[in-house]
Amino acid sequence: MNYKDVERHCMAHAGTVREEPWSDTTVFKVGGKMFAVIVHDDAHKPIGLWFKASDYSYEILTKIKDIGPCPYFWRAKWVEMIGLKPLKPDELKAYLTRAHSIVASRLSRKKQLALHIAPMTEHA
Predict the structure, then answer these.
(1) Phi, psi of 51 (to 5 degrees)
(2) Which segments of the chain have a pLDDT < 70?
(3) 38: CATH
């Protein structure tokens, strides 16, 4: 899996938009809220990935080599992954899908419907 695959996977989720608010990131949002971020170096080469995790997944992920608490967002249970090798492609896709789901579940029902997301409730 490469960063283009990550981008395609994130964009495949309902209501997702891609933004580059800062020169060193590509941000994926649903309903105006971030769920994943590709981090770039000074040459704009992707070097890592940040994403929202459930409380349970956060505890598991932060014990894996090259995955740790995300700078600035650790209190909100975001993880930082150095490169893409720490997780198998199917695992990473599942965690990114879950990140989207967690963030989307916190949107209002009205916003979920406007984004063509089936109304949902958050799960642990």
Answers:
(1) -155, 155
(2) 120-124
(3) 3.90.1150.30
